[in-house]
Amino acid sequence: MPELVQLVSGPQVEPKTVRIGIIICARYRNCGGGKCFRALRQRQGGFSRYAAEDQLQIVGYSSCGGCPGGNVEYVPAEFLKNGADAVHLATGLVVGYPPCPHIRQFKTFIEKQYGLPVVVGTHPIPLKYLQTHDQLPFWEQVNMKDIAGHLLAESREVMESYN
Fold it and tell me: Whole-angstrom Cα distance, residue 90 to residue 96?
């Protein structure tokens, strides 16, 4: 009978555990992470890439250490010690005024040095930030939509809920 169930519902996919480290911008170092953790639970923003049945675990949460990002050199090593499968660069690095000038270098460095995939973004972009950035040159100057465009895929309603 299991064969019949598989034919009707499709192949069974085993849920997996994905261990994630998050690096936030130092100017938000006092952030409690509420938007990031809500997005993780609801599989929104940068966490929309993970299957609903997968178990997501946070194995580290740190600031970049302040410009130019000194913590980025060693924090991923701590994430790896805790079993990290991926690193997320928090949405605050994208939406700040101005956005982080080092975000591309962080992504490249972590991927090359530590072999961990890096996702730019955690929670969806709050609508109020999107509306402001649409009037400013920052994102265009650094081609932010190239590395964080997936954060714009959420509906207006979802983005507004992160204001």
Answer: 11
pLDDT at 9: 57
Residue 5: CB atoms within 10 A of its CB come to 10
Cis peptide bond upstream of 68, omega within 30: yes
Read off the pLDDT band of 1 (50, 70, 90): very low
CA distance 80 to 100: 24
Question: Of 95, 85, 83, which is closest to residue 132 (Cα–Cα)?
Answer: 95
What does the domain layout of the chain look like in residue ranges?
13-161
DSSP conformation letters of 79-94: HHHTT-SEEEE-THHH
- ∠ CA 37-112-137 to the nearest 5 degrees? 65
Q: For residue 91, which of 133, 57, 140, 55 has the smallest C-alpha distance?
A: 133
Structure tokens at 34: 């509420």
- Indicate the pTM of the whole model: 0.89
pLDDT in tens, 40-60: 999 999 999 999 999 999 999
Q: Which fold has domain 13-161?
A: Rossmann fold (3.40.50)
